[in-house]
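For reproducibility, we list the full input for the flavin mononucleotide complex.
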Amino acid sequence: MSDEAVDRSVAGRKLDHLRVLADDPGVERSQSGFDGINLTHRALPELHLDEIDPSVDFLGKPMRFPLLISSMTGGSGDAILKINQTLAEAAEACGVAMAVGSQRVMFANPVAGQSFDLRKFAPTAPLIGNIGAVQLRAGLTAQHCQDAVDVLQADGLYLHLNPLQEAVQPEGDRDFSGLAAAITDLVPQMSVPLLFKEVGSGLSAADIRLGLKAGVRHFDVAGRGGTSWSRIEYHRRADDADDLGLVFQDWGLTTVEALQDAQSVLPKDAVLIASGGIRNGIDMAKAIILGADVCGLAAPLLSAARQSTQATIDVICRLDREFRTAMFLLGCANCAALKNNTGLLR
Ligand SMILES: Cc1cc2nc3c(=O)[nH]c(=O)nc-3n(C[C@H](O)[C@H](O)[C@H](O)COP(=O)(O)O)c2cc1C
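The corresponding predicted structure, in tokenized form, follows.
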């Protein structure tokens, strides 16, 4: 395929995804596992609510509370450009982190690079780039990865691992062989940390072990239970009779299962990100009790981002308030008191 054709197909795919998300409420699976976890309420928390401190450091930068706007968009066209600008402005205003969607599109169409030139909107926020790991088997080089970091002045680069999405996608890349070796080669060539990420089916303990062996220290489980990419790609099937995406719509480890798997293999100095179906500040508190350092949300921020920066800030402020309230009611003054505190589980 020519670069121009790749650009058209990648950019068109992004718009298809946004359309499906808006049209099919069933893409949200509401099965991340957090609802099945009960916490121990403290009637005497011995804390002042206003003195709860949910701040954390992430990728060497301070955040007001442990929220990451997960990878969503990027590409050419005003709508996409505006969404990324809005998310970056909101991340900066609220003191949280932001990741961009796949940057593959900027190699086919340099104009799309503008949608990743976000440092001017978020001068201090942790920003994370994004590349599909499978592209390392299809001609993407370490220089491409570094270019993706440089355009964003990113603090880290996500390598997304999405074999289910690629298997269902009509034009998907199927060759996931030899990727661990390619990632091992890539890690020492990068100026910033590489982070592993699924897109909604979860990383397993075996995946994390391979990542650790390759030199990766940051893992975003992106588990099952929120946005189903298998179901989104089902809507883009080439043949009406093809129901693979529906059959696999609930495939994978729930976010809770993936966090538990990760805990069993991660060394203390590794960084764990929880995402996939996190929908409020209580889910965030549960994820941190299960060992996460930071929590990511994607789909719940999308419709606000299509409205305005203020609407996006409002959603983030709601999450912040919910998270602080949960910490207060658990008797935890800061995130260190919450993290891995399994005594809070019932
Ligand atoms: C509109 C949209 C676009 C996305 N695009 C990407 C992407 O380009 N790269 C990626 O790694 N993940 C992408 N994701 C996946 C999310 O980052 C996240 O892993 C997944 O949606 C689960 O989080 P959620 O349940 O909070 O939506 C996208 C998600 C949404 C909603």
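Residues 226 and 305 are 18 Å apart (CA to CA). The two ends are 55 Å apart (CA to CA). Both points were considered when choosing residues for closer inspection.
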